[in-house]
Amino acid sequence: MLTAEENAILTETDADTPMGEYFRRYWQPIALSEELPEPDSDPLRVTVMGEELVAFRDTNGRVGLMDKRCPHRGADLFFGRNEECGLRCVYHGWKFDVDGNAVDLPNVPPGVRHHQTMRIKTYPTREYGDVVWAYMGPTMPELPEVPRLEFGLVHASRRYVMKQFVECNWAQAMEGDLDTSHFSFLHMPAPNVETTENRDANSPNRHLEWMRRDGRPKFDLLGHEVGFVAGGARVTDHEGELYWRMTQFMLPSHGTGPATVPGETYYGFTLFPVEDTSCWMYCYAWNPERDLQQAELDKFKIGHGIIAEIDSEYMPVRNKSNDYGIDRSVQRRETYTGVKGTAEQDIMIQQSQGFVADRTQETLTATDAAIVRFRRLLIESARELFESGLEPEPPYLHEAYRTRPGALVTSSDKELDEVLFERFGNARGLVS
Amino acid sequence: MLTTEENDLLTQTGPETSMGQYFRRFWQPVLLSEELPETDGDPVRVSVLSEELVAFRDTEGKVGLVERECPHRGADLFFGRNEECGLRCVYHGWKFDIGGKAVDLPNVPPGVRHHETVRLKAYPTREFGEIVWAYLGPQENGIPELPHMEFGFVAPGGRYVTKQLMECNWAQVMEGDLDTSHFSFLHMPAPSVPSNENLDAPADERRLKWIRNDPMPKFQILEHDVGFVVGGARATDEADETYWRMTQYTFPANGTGPSTMPGETYFGFTVVPVTDVACWMYCYAWNPERDLGNAEREKLSTTGHGIIAETDENYIPLRNRGNDYEIDRNVQRTQTFTGIKGLAEQDIMIQQSQGLIADRTRENLTATDAAVVKFRRTVMEGARRLAEDGEEPEAPRRHDAYKTRPGSWFASEGTPFEDVLLERFGHNRGLVL
């Protein structure tokens, strides 16, 4: 349970809020590279943490991200002309390059100071892993580098990157991932169904059965330089053996899928707030050892695991406005929710907590350990920055973001760090 | 640039605001006459200056404009029965005439004071130029006459009147019109297109070329009794000749189109706030010398032309905020500056893109914004004088001074603006005598 004040700190990310300032120390994914497909292509509206911006790819292929309001009289640059290395307002022709310099002010007489002083607010951008990232923080002597998430380091044929719109606050989407105990319920068959098979899930039937049987996994958490790893252990068919599912949380809002066994494809995601009541979830599947198979890619197109089925605007097809396509007779006879798709079940339940979950009204239990840890870490870090001016270190530890999540069946006498070492060759799941 | 306080003063027109009180000293268009087509026809909802009202044409053809809430228990009179010279609430049958008088209170026992005292707030209305106008101001000193705009005096065959909804504050619509320099950009072909032709523009290829070539027209402003006239002068092909485009601003929210050459059709409009984040633009085209031709009328009423947008049956522009004005990025690349079809729609797009209420604390004005600055200063001063000093504006009583014309003219280099007006209109402020 949080106080109303703590809940506000956790969930509000506009400029000049504690969490907003904290988030702005980190690179944020703001578009898929495919949304800006070629030089001089159409400008794109982007809203990030309450800031209304416009993105464009200039003639040289560089991505600009700027205030959407022209500094002359506030017309929306989204309607502007993207041409000859700049975005030009269609009202009076003012033109700005990706760095925010006014390169043409055709209705301003020569000699007027505007020609030297006029600028538009822009943010630095990078492309990494088929995603456009932006840094919206204060100007630093040296900008941090984009976090080296592993999906961005593998060959393009070994990854699949997409995004989906989530109609609620970013923090409850994050919490939904960290609490892996919900799998024993939300993603299960209806109670009267005998088989546990679930083609939408990334686990073999055997693992699903263990999850279904053990709704109280034991949680253990281990901190690392840029976040923590959460392990949930469930009983298996054999005494003396546990089924571990381990997920990574990396600051400020990166999560993973815990189901991957060695050789299989990994899943991760990054959330970034659009406003306090909505966020984008950038999802990536990657396999460090082989190209993704056609069968996998086909599955992703219709949704699989954390990836929802989306329309051409990246909006989940089953969403709040259609009650996620819930089918009550399917809920009675086939699945726990009657909602199709693991991702859609997550989206449904997270959004059902409200636009901004009211954490003053909850009742937590033992399996919520990772959620508590997450909140404490974020609220403390945001406060340290906002109240004491203590700059966070993780933005400068970009190599520490190369972590893996995953599952392992191993002997029940091992501690989480031993399980991690056995599974990943590193006691925190770091890839060296 | 304005302060936040000034921006609020300029943009807020609810009943308790300074600008709202100022606007209420002037007649406001509230409907097209065609929206109340017949006696005892359907009542129509009207929202004006943040007041929710209902209009009806009674059995005698007179137009009533009354508050929407029945004084009994607040039921909406829009659902009422318009019959026998009054609007009757369907809840308990209370009935009011166009003056707001309770003419029947069938559930009130005889002898009860209600029969004498109950009234519904009603505003005086007039019809002029196929528009229903209303006066929402105080009446202690009598009611002013309607502004004598020229379009209302020509024969119906010589005019076309319509309206279109704007999804933003009134003042930025007004500003968009007063800044005629934007024509050099917003309404132009894409830079790669050699031709200057624009069939949507009420100006020929030659004039459009000069507008395109000179994005820094020299602006001059001359005040008159009910506003001011703005002249923008651009270079032409001849070294000693200047192309002038002159537009009229009259209080509080009337504007014009500056393109008209003698003999051509004139364009004007009146902006009426619905709320602070929406307004109606009543548009009129008129020709004082002849009837509008069929082709001209057809263009105005179907595809839109000049300041007149293509609208649906509810007067909502077809290309609007909800569909991104149907911007076509390929057309923007290869054919027009915006990729949006229609001159009016280009204006609507850019004005609405400034936000529901433009934030004038964050702008950077330049020389060509002279008329924008003048407009703000003038109208804010009028509102402040009324609110702070109780000084009633004079313009509402100067109805004859509203008979002005806008237009274009060629003058030899160096001709003073006043003389250009005299040459073009026979009057040094563009007044029709």
What do these coordinates show?
The complex is a heterodimer of chains A (432) and B (433). Chain A has 432 residues and is α+β, with helices and mostly antiparallel strands. Chain A contains eleven helices and 18 strands. Chain A has helices at 4-11, 18-23, 114-117, 170-178, 183-186, 205-213, 294-301, 328-333, 342-351, 369-388, 416-424, and strands at residues 27-32, 44-48, 51-57, 63-67, 81-82, 87-88, 95-96, 102-104, 125-128, 131-135, 159-166, 218-224, 227-235, 241-250, 254-256, 266-275, 278-286, 406-411. Chain A has a four-stranded antiparallel sheet. In chain A, strands 11-17-16-15 form a four-stranded antiparallel sheet, covered by helices on one side. In chain A, strands 12-13-14-18 form a four-stranded antiparallel sheet, sandwiched between helices. In chain A, strand 2 and strand 3 (51-57) form a beta hairpin. The longest helix of chain A is centred in the last third of the chain and has 20 residues, at 369-388. The two termini of chain A are 38 Å apart. The model of chain A has no long low-confidence stretch (mean pLDDT 95). In chain B, helix 4 packs across helix 8 (343-353) and helix 4 (170-178) packs across helix 9 (370-389). Chain B is α+β, with helices and mostly antiparallel strands and 433 residues long. In chain B, 21% of the residues lie in helices and 24% in strands. In chain B, strand 10 (125-128) and strand 11 (131-134) form a beta hairpin. The interface between A and B is medium-sized, with 26 and 36 residues.
